[in-house]
Amino acid sequence: MQISKSLIEQYNDDNLKTHQRKLDFSTSEIDNSEAIIKQLVDFQIAIPSWALGTGGTRFGRFPGGGEPRSLEEKIEDVGLLHALNQSSGAISLHIPWDIPTDANAIRNLAAQHGLKFDAVNSNTFQDQADQALSYKFGSLQNVNKAIRKQAVDHNIEVIKHGIELGSDSLTVWLSDGSCFPGQLNFRKAFQNTLEGLQEIYAALPSNWKMFVEYKCAEPNFYSTTVGDWGQSLLYASKLGEKAYTLVDLGHHLPNANIEQIVSLLLMEGKLGGFHFNDSKYGDDDLTAGALKPYQLFLIFNELVEGMNARNMNHAKDLGWMIDASHNVKDPLEDLLQSVEAIMMAYAQALSVDRQALEVAQNENDTVRCQEISQNAFRTDVRALVAEASLRAGGALNPIGLFRNLKVRENLIKERGFKTIATGL
Ligand code: RM4
Ligand code: MN
Ligand code: MN
User: Fold this and answer.
1) Is there an atom of ligand 1 within 6 Å of 98 CB?
2) How far apart, in whole angstroms, are the C-alpha atoms of residue 284 and residue 299?
3) Would you put residue 40 in left (φ > 0), alpha (ψ -120 to 50) or beta?
């Protein structure tokens, strides 16, 4: 299914009056609205190829129909999202869930939809049918050298796929760790992992980045070999300037102050990118901003402040990716909601009166500090996000149009009801 420009225009025309009213209010409240809208137009968030089908849990999976059956159809789905919001102009591939057998054809198809390839992801947390050795007891940390080599080779293979597609980063998430005390020599596990990462790092093209993603627990429940930002930063620092820490919002122990982590990683020049999602208990992978929109805002607040301090390009210098998927929503609607929540948090952070905040901080005026931050969070920026979409050629309300056009029903007609996408 393709969504034509004229359908989008028609929908926007029908809703323009109401939008204009809301926009007038927002721009009267926010001084730098025009600059914010321009920055929103430039901001793109990559869609994970593994989140286009229903997520499921270890207890079950309830597919909703019309799921993409191939990488081509996944690209088509991301193309639909991008046509609707003009903010999802990239796809992040997980290999071997999505192997681009004909890289040229895949590249062309993506280009037709206006999509780029964001970070490629390796997978050494599952055994594949044709795989010689098992990752049951870890991959890069494994006590068995041959298993470590297999994991290194896989990552190098992923880099090769990425090069063919025009990607310029590799995300390494390892499930390595241990489930029981005494199972693992922590130091040796770290050393083995570091050595493996070094070999992978050596295979990176000069313009590439390597993102070392951490996660506090799951599937290992006693220790994780890249368990927190400290460990990730240790690896990234030892590896070199092309290695960075990747922050996945759902990968922290409860109540961790993620915004502070982000601020310090940025200060050190070691923040590489993000996996956005939301969670209540652990790596719940829920829609970004669904539970803790204020936290998302506070994170963006540090991002904007820290990126400005380092003269960074907001849109290009960090990897912005979603990593969310679950059991109950239409995956495409869910992704549209995540993108919108991220754009809103970014817009709110851009609207913070930084000068006033600095003055209040220097005067230890805690009340004023809170007023300034919460004022930005509480001001409705939805019309600014809608205006950015409109100006870029997207829909004023992407989910509204998705439903109007009966996109899911059309996909079910095209692909059938019993289709299953590879991924989580
Ligand atoms: C992990 C982690 C990785 C993702 C896998 C599927 O928890 O978030 O980024 O690739 O899940
Ligand atoms: Mn992740
Ligand atoms: Mn995760």
Assistant:
1) no
2) 18
3) alpha
Q: Report how far residue 68's alpha carbon sits from residue 83's, in angstroms, rounded to the nearest whole number.
A: 17
Tell me how crowded residue 404 is: count the other CB atoms within 10 A of its CB. 14
Sequence-distant contacts of 132-135: CB under 8 A, at least 24 apart = 135/175
Amino acid at 309: A
Ligand 1: which residue has its CA nearest to atom 6? 424
Return d(Cα 129, Cα 175) in angstroms, integer. 19
3-state secondary structure at position 421:
coil
With pLDDT > 70 as the criterion, what percentage of the chain qualifies? 100
| Whole-Å CA distances, 100 to 56, 81, 300 | 25, 21, 33
pLDDT in tens, 77-116: 999 999 999 999 999 999 999 999 999 999 999 999 999 9
Q: Which ligand is nearest to the CA of 55?
A: 1
Pocket test for ligand 1, best of 173, 226, 286, 325 (most atoms within 8 A of CB): 173
The three-class DSSP label of residue 208 is coil
Q: For residue range 106-159, what is the model confidence (pLDDT) as tens digits?
A: 999 999 999 999 999 999 999 999 999 999 999 999 999 999 999 999 999 999
424 has pLDDT over 90: no
pLDDT of residue 62: 87
Q: Which residues, 6 or more positions from 368, have their beta carbon under 8 angstroms from its beta carbon?
A: 356, 360
* Percent helix / strand / coil, the chain, rounded to 5: 50, 10, 40
